[in-house]
Amino acid sequence: MFSGKRIVVKGAGDLATGVAARLFRSGFPVVMTEIAQPLTVRRTVSFSDAIYDGETTVEGIRARRVEDKAEILKALDERVIPVRVDPEATIVQDIEPFAVIDAIMAKKNIGTRMEDAPLVVGLGPGFAVGRDVHAVVETKRGHTLGRVIWKGSAIPNTGIPGEVRGFGAERVIRSPGPGIFKGSISIGEHVEKGDIVAYAGDTPVPAPISGTLRGLLHDGVMVEKGLKSGDVDPRDTRESCWLISDKALAIGGGVLEAVLTAICRMDFGKGTDPIPNR
Question: pTM above 0.85?
């Protein structure tokens, strides 16, 4: 039904993967872009790992690293999500998608324009409807998470992670110094506070709290002091490491709503403007 309405998702981290999964399962052909060395922490639920490994699978959905338009089209024909190193998202001009979703989560607009596609959606803060995008999807936890904003902007970035069992910023692993990152414990393992989970160069990276190591940067990434490098889940549920999060699914649901709203408006007599009630 939606095979002709290609969607480009900029970014392939865990939130972008939640968006891509919801769109893909609803029948949309999805193409994703990434940087050459993704800094994804929740790698077991992120299509960005295809950049490192060539191919990856999240909840039964396959993603493959591709190099050009021909490989993108081949992957789409095979019901595989193509992921391309394309920081500038030049593929948008090549395949002329119906929608572009900025899921980079940079907390600011670093190059997305309303002219990129008939529908352009930004995730979280940094985008204004009518200036940067046609719609914004809220990414902050709470009653507005996943809601589609057709006028205005998302809640400003607080820089404070959402709390899980009373832990907010404490559950985030940050690099204590610069160097080449190398993990010493696998995602999904239980850690105690203070356990060494990785090294930044020769500097050990300790677990900030006890729980399940839910995320960790890919080996070989060059890190700077303070860079988010991992995530410990105090709920200590190993299975959740391989499940797209409730937050990512909520945001993905918001994007799907925006896309379907635009299709209904543009296909059923409302002209070319995807923004309702304007």
Answer: yes
